[in-house]
Amino acid sequence: MAIFSPGFRGRARGADDRLPPGQYLTEDFPVLSAGPTPRIAPERWSFTVTDETGAETTWSRAEFLALPQEQPHVDIHCVTRWSKLDTDWTGVSLDTLLGAVETQAEYALVYSYGGYTTNLPLDDLLDGKAWVAHRYGGAELDPEHGGPARLLVPHLYFWKSAKWVRGIRLLDRDEQGFWEAAGYHDYGDPWREQRYRDD
């Protein structure tokens, strides 16, 4: 298992009320990954929602791009203590994707090319809180930042915004993902500094 150092440094601007406790601002976009970067040809990318019965709804890239697109303008916060303000993305709201699925599930397990997973309460993916994003800063999302597409859940620490996302499994009960099973917090609220399991 790869471990990365929280050694990024920068000038803290504690007066900024958009900066969660323990975070510093960066103008860069640091690249942190638990393993090698998967290389997925965009035309071969697809996204699947699997409900709690095992039924699947899948969108090809062309079908995904034909869905209503949104442009979230959000701040992002990494568990390694950097925050980046005013980031611009393009993607499809989870409200749109999950609107095609009937479910009574309360939890979701997000899974990615390369085997990465992360868990979230389903409520944290709905009501305009989350997107599957394929563009950043007006350009196609680089593989190092999760391209062809990544989850974007800006109100939680950024490890919850899984890179190289390929699907979501809806669950009746919570199931820990990669970093959660390794000791990270199950929820990951940056404003409550929920970095690790006992925080």
Describe this entry's structure for a reader.
The chain has 199 residues and is mainly beta. It has one domain (24-28, 41-192): Sulfite Oxidase, Chain A, domain 2, CATH 3.90.420.10. The protein is built from three helices and eleven strands. The strands form two sheets. Strands 1, 4, 5, 8, 9 and 10 form a six-stranded mixed beta sheet that branches. The protein has a five-stranded mixed beta sheet with strand order 3-2-11-6-7. A hairpin with a 4-residue loop joins β4 and β5. The longest helix has 5 residues, at 61-65. It is globular, with a radius of gyration of 16 Å. The two termini are 22 Å apart. Mean pLDDT is 90; it is low at 1-15. Residues 35-179 form the Oxidoreductase molybdopterin-binding domain.
Helix content: under 10%
User: How many strands, what sense, and barrel or not for the largest sheet?
Assistant: 6 strands, mixed
| Percent strand | 25-35%
N-end to C-end Cα span: 22 Å
Which stretches are low in confidence, meaning pLDDT under 50 for 5 or more residues running?
Answer: 1-15
CATH architecture group name: Alpha-Beta Complex
**CATH domain fold name:** Sulfite Oxidase, Chain A, domain 2
The total tally of domains equals 1
Please state the average pLDDT score. 90
Output the CATH homologous superfamily: Oxidoreductase, molybdopterin-binding domain
Overall 3D shape: globular
What string gives the helices and strands in order? EEEHEEHEEEEEEH
Count of alpha/pi helices? 3
Radius of gyration: 16 Å
- By DSSP, the count of extended strands is 11
